[in-house]
Task: structure prediction
Amino acid sequence: MHLVPTEGAEAFLARAATGLARLIEGKPAALFCILAGMAWGIQAERAAASERFPRYVARRALALAAAGLAFHVLVWPTEILLPLALMMILSLVVRRAGMKATLTVAVLLVAAAPLAAALFGGYVPTDWNSDGTPLADSQPGWATVRSFLFDGSYPIVPWMAFPLVGMAMLDGDRPRADLARWFRIALAVAAVAQVWVLWSNAHAESFGAVTAYVTSTWVPTSVPFVLLAGGSAVTVIVGLVRWHAAAGLPRLAMPIALLGRASLTHYLLHIGAVIVPLRLAWPAEDWPVRVGAAAFAGYLALALPLTTLWFRRFSHGPLEGVWAAASGRAR
Result:
């Protein structure tokens, strides 16, 4: 999603690549957040059993926030780690009230998205610069608060619904046994939302003043966006969980699974090692499709074997191990 452009293709293969990039837009981010919620739920369950829940969560969130701030200032203004650190604390507080409360808050956060847009949507044009960067990056202040709460790329309303759904998919520190029902519901939601998004975006001009509420928009995050991205992500997760439980993943998939175990490492590494150099030549991030596709393929060609070798000696990815140590978790 970061490397392959969504526009500017002419050849058939390039059009296929940009079409795929448009199709998956938003879905990887929702997937990342739902999986984060599942991980936090599992870790919190084990930390609670050892009676060190509050200290562990606080250290883990502070370590993530510190890493996110350092990366944001020194390398590239990525916006997901700081909101994730905040959502970690808030969602784990909600989780302690039980599954019903967790799902209720998730639904309320999604339902609040149109209300937040109606009340604070006027700030969106002033909170984002003409080059597509958020004002919070250069002028911290109320714009930063609004970015975290409403009009950033990953605001609490409604993005915290994603990790809450991830937590609700667990029974203790294991996936729930009734995930087949989750799969059917998520697949139906994703399918209906995809049809609606394609139709509504094609007829956006006919909606007038309510266009932002009924079409799929990332900033501010609309309800159709949440339903499409979230439904798709849950479908992928539950489908893989059930596939793994029934027959195990094929051996060819294992290097990709190991890449996922080091997802934080690869998220930050591909930005620092690939995107930052590309931006030196294309500051507006408008590099040709062939350049982005080649960068993606080249990164995978190196990352897959190196990650496999890493996990032959270590149980965590490089940055995941540092984060675990900073959180006070035993090796």
In short: Residues 12-248 form one domain. The first strand starts at residue 170 and ends at 171.
